[in-house]
Amino acid sequence: MFLNFHLQMCGIFGIITNQDTISVGKVVFGGIKRLEYRGYDSCGIVYLFNLSYT
């Protein structure tokens, strides 16, 4: 059976690292670009620096 309608799906991309050598901005931007076809109007970025859990 073939579907004759477009299914909309969401996508989530994330990265967690403690390495200073990785270019987080480039990795996140690349991940968002790969998800871009899923909908340009719902994109956001959260960046936390020196977050510690106690």
UniProtKB/TrEMBL annotation:
<protein>
    <recommendedName>
        <fullName>Glutamine amidotransferase type-2 domain-containing protein</fullName>
    </recommendedName>
</protein>
<dbReference type="InterPro" id="IPR029055">
    <property type="entry name" value="Ntn_hydrolases_N"/>
</dbReference>
<dbReference type="InterPro" id="IPR017932">
    <property type="entry name" value="GATase_2_dom"/>
</dbReference>
<feature type="domain" description="Glutamine amidotransferase type-2">
    <location>
        <begin position="10"/>
        <end position="54"/>
    </location>
</feature>
